[in-house]
Specification:
alpha+beta, four-stranded mixed sheet, 11 strands, 50% helix, globular, binds protoporphyrin IX containing FE, iron, Cytochrome P450, Cytochrome_P450_monoxygenase, metal-binding, Cyt_P450_sf
């Protein structure tokens, strides 16, 4: 009997393998250009993800194969405007997110960002949107807290030993203080001046759980993670107890004051928390905390990383003339209220976001039921599709000539048409109904601190004797950060008589 079953089993396996093989060859993604191996296996993509190199890998595939590339069975990436519009803008907020976003639940509770379907998402977004409208961000109570912290940053830079500061640390502290001011002032952090708060920022920014979280996503049973743990192959799990506590304390204190009906300590009227605690919304304590926690993490890493790369870039000898031009604009426009209407400052920041989008990697979405044609390619329902900011900002060289060159001038109006083409492809904050909610806050934070720094100082790379820090991109779960997580700059005070 066993003699018969073994060949039968073998035959069944061979037939199944053949069916699968032919199925892959006849699949819709077989018609998309890309490495042949990726038609049959997701291993090459996963390998690069685990190495923190997904963005660059996909970018190189686009350079080799064109604007549509097959990444893995059932996964295709695009780098064209029609694809971006279809995936992220069709019917307002584009296609639904994939289950990858479940990794962003906080305290085990879903948040707006981690919600997959459009309807639940848009209900939550409607509640929160007014707190992030530009008109709201510019209100005095909200903005003054950020402005004060930008001043603190510039003072701290000037007072650092030998005027050398690790801006990776200081800018993430600044971003932490800025975002918590907006989320739940007066319970916000003071990491720029207080070591205990800086330690909370470090907990979030130095998290090293990429491989573990990817394993959890790909193997929800948890078995591979357990085996890798036993073998000592994985760094510790994401652990941010102090950050979680800061948020819970702010929520609990505010709720307690509200329940006692007296003027106890509570989140200021302009904050996100004051909106979330409105009883009419019926949110639970954990839902409020999860939303605040999510925005806090989003606000620290993204803003801190872009600013760090941008200040590093400006400090390279080749960019000193850009600093001089920026200084001239800031010197000639001393009114602090005008920070948002300075064309060169805007162009420098926009170029920073183009070259160093802190969420540079593809933002995965599912093709809806019935399948869709994306930029001329038909793909069936359930295919994972995406565009990545890093490539959208570089791929079409007629739109972004010399894409690897830092050139703020490209944003200063060669022609209205060219401006419009660049802006349509500008994807640092994503786009559509699921685009970045905090972008006005982020822009205000970044402009205010750049204004404070570059009207007072020239920055240069600090000569610390050792090997220069590696500033190349290290992909995390969705954002990317400078690999060495350190960036020492020297702040040389400008004098009024400085000529430029
Ligand atoms: C330079 C700074 C920032 C960049 C480059 C950035 C980028 C992005 C991107 C690309 C997305 C979409 C991600 C996706 O679809 O997977 C996003 C979403 C989001 N961002 Fe930002 N972000 C920044 C700062 C902030 C700040 C300061 C906050 C809030 C305090 C914030 C809050 C959010 C939220 C809540 C979402 C989710 C929106 C939704 O699901 O509807 N971001 N951000």
């Amino acid at each position: 009997m066993a003699l018969f079953t073994a060949p039968l089993l073998l035959g069944a396996v061979v037939v199944a393998a053949l069916v699968w093989f032919v199925g892959r060859l006849r699949s819709a993604d077989a018609a998309v250009p890309g490495p042949i191996l990726n038609l049959f296996s997701s291993l090459p993509l996963k390998y690069h993800e685990f190495c923190g190199n997904r963005t660059q890998y996909i970018h190189q595939l686009h350079r080799r194969y064109g604007s549509a590339v097959r990444l893995a069975p059932g996964e295709v990436a695009f780098a064209s405007l029609p694809a971006l519009k279809e995936i992220y803008l069709s019917h307002g907020s584009g296609y639904d997110k994939t289950s990858f976003y479940h990794l962003f639940r906080q305290y085990g509770t879903p948040t707006m960002f981690s919600t997959l379907d459009k309807q639940t998402h848009s209900q939550r977004r409607r509640i929160l949107a007014d707190r992030y409208a530009n008109s709201h961000v510019l209100k005095a109570d909200a903005l003054n807290g950020i402005r004060d912290r930008a001043k603190t940053f510039a003072i701290a830079a000037g007072q650092s030993p030998n005027q050398i500061m690790d801006v990776y640390i200081a800018l993430h502290s600044y971003a932490f203080d800025g975002v918590t001011h907006h989320l739940f002032h007066p319970f916000g952090s003071n990491a720029l001046e207080d070591r205990m708060d800086e330690a909370v920022m470090r907990e979030v920014s130095f998290d090293n759980s990429l491989a573990r979280r990817l394993l959890e996503y790909y193997f929800p049973s948890g078995v591979p993670a357990k085996i890798a743990d036993r073998l000592g192959l994985l760094p510790p799990a994401r652990s941010i107890p102090r950050a979680k506590q800061i948020v819970l304390d702010a929520v609990d204190t505010t709720l307690k004051s509200a329940s006692e009906g007296k003027e106890g300590p509570h989140a200021a009227d302009f904050t996100l928390l004051s909106r979330l605690q409105d009883p009419a919304l019926g949110l639970t304590r954990m839902q409020m905390a999860a939303e605040c926690m999510d925005h806090m993490a989003a606000g620290i890493e993204t803003t801190g990383d872009v600013l760090c790369w941008l200040m590093w870039q400006l400090s390279l000898p080749s960019c000193h003339r850009i600093q001089d031009r920026l200084y001239a604009e800031l010197r000639d426009n001393p009114d602090p209220a005008k920070y948002d209407s300075l064309p060169y400052l805007h162009a420098v920041l926009k170029e920073g976001l183009r070259m160093f989008p802190s969420i540079p990697m593809s933002l995965p979405r599912h093709v809806p039921s019935g399948g869709r044609v994306i930029d001329g390619t038909w793909l069936p329902e359930g295919t994972i599709v995406s565009c990545q900011p890093y490539t959208m900002h570089r791929f079409e060289e007629d739109i972004f000539p010399q894409p690897d060159e830092f050139s703020p001038d490209r944003w200063l109006g060669t022609s209205l048409e060219q401006d419009a083409e660049m802006n349509r492809r500008f994807f640092a904050f994503s786009n559509g109904g699921r685009g970045c909610l905090g972008k006005h806050l982020a822009m205000a934070e970044m402009k205010l601190v750049l204004r404070e720094v570059y009207r007072q100082y020239k920055t240069v790379l600090a000569d610390t004797g050792g090997k220069p820090a590696d500033m190349s991109m290290s992909d995390q779960i969705i954002s990317s950060r400078p690999k060495d997580q350190t960036c020492k700059l020297k702040f040389i005070p400008r004098r009024l008589k400085d000529s430029v």
